[in-house]
Amino acid sequence: MRGFEIDEPRTQAFKREMLNKVGIDTSRITYVPADFEEEDWLEKLKEAGFAQDMPSFFFWEAVTMSLDREAVESTLRKIASTATGSVVAFDYFSAELIEERSLFMRYVRAVISATGEPWKFGIDNTPPMRKRVAAFLELCGLSLEEQRNFGQETDKKRAMAGFATGVVRTTENSSSLRSGNRGRLPDVSDGSLQDNSGQHASEGKEQAVEPRMSIVTLGVSDLERSVAFYRDGLGWPKSGVGDDEVAFFKTSGVVMALFPRASFALDAGVDVDAVDRGGFSRFSLAHNVVEEEDVDSVLAEAAEAGATIVKEAQEIFFGRHGFFADPDGFLWEVAWNPSFPMAPDGSIELPD
To answer: What values do phi and psi take at 44, rounded to 5?
Structure first.
C-alpha cells in the first residue's frame, strides 16, 4: 500500500521539517506539493505514481474551510473520477460559522487569516445537516456514506461543523450521455401539445409533456455577483428559497434561477470540463410536474420525440428529476418538487 501526502507547498514543507526534527520516519510517504486553487493536484498525484484506476482512500482534514467553493467542488469531482469504491473523508465548517459576525468569531477569523490560510468555505447547516451534505456531495458526483455533526443539532439549533465520508459509486447514466433514445412523436389528443400554427397532432394519446415552461436556469460564473446584479442592481425580488448554491427570482411568470456554472453542468450530468469550451448551453429550461411519477412519463415521451436523455429520472434532495436535451442540445430539466406548489395554470408559486 502506498501513501501520498498532498498539501500547499509552504505548509507541507513546514510539516516535513517538524517531522524530521522529531525523528519520525516518512520514507514510505510520497510528498506531492500542490495548490488546490491554482493547480491540477490529481495530475501531479498521477505524475508521482498514483494509480487512478485503483480504489483509494482520501483523507482530507482541515482543508475545505481554507479553499474557495470552486476549489472544494473541483477537488471532490476529481476524487469522483477515481476508481469505483474510492472513499473521501473530510471535515467542514458551516456557512453560518464562516459568515458569523460576532466579535469573537471576527477575531478568530482575523487570527486564522494572519497565518495565510483564511477561512472561505462552509456548507449550509439548515437542519438536517446530513441532508445538506448529501446534496452537496451528490452535486460533486459522490454518494454520502457517513456524516457526523460537531455539536448538537435540533430543529432549532444548528451544528456549526461536521465530518463526512463520500463514496465513488458506479452510475448508469454514462451511456445515456452518449446515445439517448430516438423516435417519433406519438399521437396526441385534442387540446394537448401544439405547434405554433395551432394545428393539433393526430388524436389517440394523452400528452405527458404539457406546453409549460416553469424555470429558466442561468449557469453563472460568480453567483454572488449575479445575485447582486439582479437583486440590488435591477431590483428583482429574490425568493428566500435556496441557499448559497442557488438563487431564485420571481418574474411576471416564469421563475429565474441562478446556479454556478460548473455545479449546473454536474447537476445536469454533462461534461463539466466542457463548460468553458461552450460544450453545452449555459442555461437550461425546466418543466415542473405535479406528481412524482410524471417525471418518468415526460422523459419517456421526450425520448420518443427525438430528445437525448442526459440524466435518467432519479431521486434528489428536493424530490425527483431528470434531464433531456432537444435536437439542438438545449437542456430541459423535468422536476417534481413538492416545495414549489403549482398554480392551476401550471405556474410555480414561489415562496417569498
So the answer is: -65, -35
> Between 149 and 268, whose confidence is greater?
149
User: Quick one: cell of 214?
Assistant: 416553469
Nearest-CA neighbor of 93 among 74, 112, 79?
Answer: 112
Q: Would you give the DSSP letter of residue 123?
A: B
> Structure pTM?
0.49
b/e for 15-28, b at 16 or more Cβ within 10 A? ebeeeeeeeeeeee
CB 316 within 8 A of CB 138: yes
Q: Is pLDDT above 60 for 186?
A: no
C-beta separation of 239 from 351 below 8 A:
yes
User: Which one-letter DSSP state was computed for residue 352?
Assistant: -
Strands 255-260 and 319-325, by their bridges, are unpaired
b/e map of 206-233 (b: 16 or more CB within 10 Å)?
ebbbeebebbebbbbeebeebbeebeee
- pLDDT above 80 (res 304): yes
Which pLDDT score is estimated for 249?
86
CA distance 320 to 333: 10
How many residues would you count in the chain? Answer: 352
> CA angle, 280 as apex, 268 and 264 as ends, to 5°?
35
- State how far the alpha carbon of 181 is from the alpha carbons of 296, 300, 319, 327, in Å: 14, 9, 24, 12
* DSSP result, 52-80: TTS--EEEE-S-GGGS-HHHHHHHHHHHH
Of residues 157, 148, 286, 142, the one with CA closest to residue 210: 286
| Residues 221, 223: Cα–Cα separation, whole Å | 6
Cell digits of residue 178: 452518449
> 35: pLDDT confidence band, cut at 50, 70 and 90?
confident
